[in-house]
Amino acid sequence: MDIDVKNLHPLEVRLLRHVSLGEAIDATRLISELGYNVGQCNQSFSWLEAKGFVKEEARVRRTLYELTDVGRFQAQEGTPAERIFYFLKEHGPATLPKIAESLNLEQSEVGSSFGLLSKGGFVGMNEANNAEAKARELEGMVLLTREVLKKGLEGLLDDDALSSEEKTAISRIAKKRGAATSPFKIIERDEVTYALTEAGQQAKEAIIKAKISGDELGLVTSEILASGSWKNATFRPYALNAPTSRLIVGRHNAYADYLQWVKDKLISLGFEEFDGSLVESEFWNGDALFMPQFHSARDIHDVYYVKEPRHAKTIEEPWLSQVAKTHENGWKTQSRGWGYTFDHEFTRRQVLRSQGTVLSARQLPKAKVPGKYFGVVRCFRYDQVDATHGADFYQTEGIVLGEDVNLKNLLGLLKMFAEEIAGAEEVRYVPGYFPFTEPSIEVHIKHPALGWFELGGSGIFRPEVTGPLGIDVPVLAWGLGIDRMALMHLGLNDLRELFTPNIESVRLRRGK
Questions:
Q1: In sequence order, which residues have a C-beta less than 8 Å from that of residue 408 and are 6 or more positions away?
Q2: In terms of domains, do 159 and 271 share one?
Q3: Do residue 361 and residue 504 come from a single domain?
Q4: Alpha carbon separation from 495 to 175, 401, 422 (Å, rounded)
Q5: What value does the mean pLDDT of the chain take?
Q6: Is residue 176 part of a domain?
Q7: What confidence tens digit (pLDDT) does each residue in 200-225 have?
Q8: Which of these, 437, 383, 433, 387, lies nearest to 410 by C-alpha position?
Q9: What's the burial of 318, exposed, middle or buried (CB within 10 Å: 0-12/13-18/19+)?
Q10: How would DSSP label each residue in 217-244?
Q11: What span, in angstroms and rounded, lies between the C-alpha atoms of 397 and 457?
């Protein structure tokens, strides 16, 4: 068997030279006989097992207990139960809060320790509802706990080496996780025994024949140069043709980069960014956009309802009253409204934001005229997940307010989004319907693999939307699927690739 022993690590070489066929090899032996630490033992066994030079013979799960800083303090100064008992013996009856303050203990520690003492008959409550000592001295489990703590000062405690009484005592004060406030930390460790294989024996013989000791130097350091010890040392051979380790550089997520690029693009065009909460009331999610509360027009937004709290406490005035009147009779908008009684309870119902237009509505009462605003908005809407649809998605949402803005301006904005931000080469406009805009337009783009699909909707806000929110000039509005624009921009064919858990895909994907 041809074995290249020159490429073995010194840890492997020393282990192979030290053991023979039929011998049990474990970490304890290597630490004692070769001076390895636990990490070096694990590395050696892992490397040699992968090469087939050693094999696992047995595995035993051990439970160990390690004393924490809290445990060391209690081993030296006394457990909370001991300190409480002797405090009451010395100072007489006291309230539990007084005990906690005097001994610098947490209320929870005093309560649990007092319960343990009371159960053993060592303390009790008198007629004045004060704690007092009932026994002369402590005994039993309380003292046994102190003995276990002192035993822990000597090192790790093995569960198999403890008596049944000691196990009962330590189980009360040991934790596996979050052990910072407990006297003992539970450690579960697998002790594995290995044995040399025939291939390992052959490797050992080859090492001895090649006169490799495992003490060869692998690095040239300033210390050995200064001392001159390198002159009498043997160096490990360097494999100049060995592949280098992979260098994984840090990189921004491509989709996150794209979202930031879109924001930078719009800000450079003079737009101001807005943002808001993921949870909205039905008022802002639909009512303020002139979507009737009980009408099939609302079905195009299948929302997720918030279970708790179900309702917002209040809705801002005067917008609530003015929107309610607009729904009922048109208010001052020269509209007839929807002709129903506005439900003030329903309008406070909380949902996950189903469309970015919510934030456009929220922006209207504080918008400047003229003004341009946008947001990159995460939305939630029940949908069948596929290559072009998701149950949660991002929209780029925006409005332009001004005396002279018109449909031609809107088409120009849509063309800019489709070509410059999405990177589409073919764009078309399709008449659409949205309860809050008139006219309403959908913009479609052509993907090289997915074909034509809708990028989003747009239009000019109806007076029933702008009037109740304090705006009396035309308002252009759009809500475009930025996830779909990212497909074009990043050269992808499936929306799900934007949120893939495949880290290699994330590393390789680059934006513009």
A1: none
A2: no
A3: yes
A4: 45, 32, 14
A5: 86
A6: yes
A7: 999 999 999 888 888 877 778 888 88
A8: 437
A9: exposed
A10: B----HHHHHH-GGGG--BPPP-TTSPP
A11: 10
CB atoms closer than 10 angstroms to residue 339? 10
Check whether 178 has a pLDDT greater than 80: no
In a domain, residue 461? The reply is yes
Kindly state whether residues 269 and 406 are assigned to the same domain. yes
- Which residue in the block uniquely carries the two structure tokens 């101001």? 272
Highest mean pLDDT (candidates 107-121, 230-244, 494-508): 107-121
User: Which of 169-184 are b and which e, b meaning 16 or more Cβ less than 10 Å from the residue's Cβ?
Assistant: bbeebbeeeebeebbb
Are 365 and 443 contained in the same domain?
yes
State pTM to two decimals: 0.53
* Domain identity same for 356 and 494: yes
Of the residues 142, 171, 189, the one at which a domain ends:
189
281-326 pLDDT, tens per residue? 999 999 999 999 876 645 555 788 898 999 999 999 999 999 999 9
Calpha distance 417→271 (Å, rounded): 14
| 115 domain residue, yes or no | yes
Rounded Cα distance between 395 and 486, Å, is: 11
Q: Phi, psi at residue 311, to the nearest 5°?
A: -130, 145
Structure tokens given for 79: 């457990």
* Domain span including residue 72: 67-189
Quick one: 265 and 178 in the same domain? no
* CATH code: domain of residue 357: 3.30.930.10
Q: Does residue 509 surpass a pLDDT of 70?
A: no
Answer yes or no: do 146 and 267 share one domain: no
Residue where the block lists tokens 């003292």: 143
Residue 154 φ then ψ, to 5°: -85, -15
- Give the H or E element holding residue 484: helix 482-490
> Does 46 map to a domain?
no
How much of the chain exceeds pLDDT 70, in percent? 95
Residues 262 and 149 in one domain: no
- pLDDT of 66-117, one tens digit each? 888 888 888 888 888 888 888 888 889 988 888 888 888 888 788 888 888 8
**For 120-172, how does the pLDDT look when each residue is reduced to its tens digit (9 = 90+)?**
888 888 888 888 888 888 888 878 888 888 888 888 888 888 888 888 888 88
Predicted confidence (pLDDT) at residue 507 exceeds the cutoff of 70: no
Of the candidates 202, 170, 205, 198, which has an alpha carbon nearest to the alpha carbon of residue 186? 170
Taking a C-beta distance cutoff of 8 angstroms, is the pair 195, 22 a contact?
yes
Over residues 51-56, the mean pLDDT reads 93
Residue ending a domain, choose from 158, 189, 220: 189
Question: How many structural domains comprise the chain?
Answer: 2
Please report, for the domain that includes residue 164, its CATH number. Answer: 1.10.10.10
Pairing between β-strand 272-273 and β-strand 371-380 as defined by DSSP bridges? parallel
Strands (E), 330-472: 350-352, 371-380, 392-401, 427-431, 437-447, 451-461
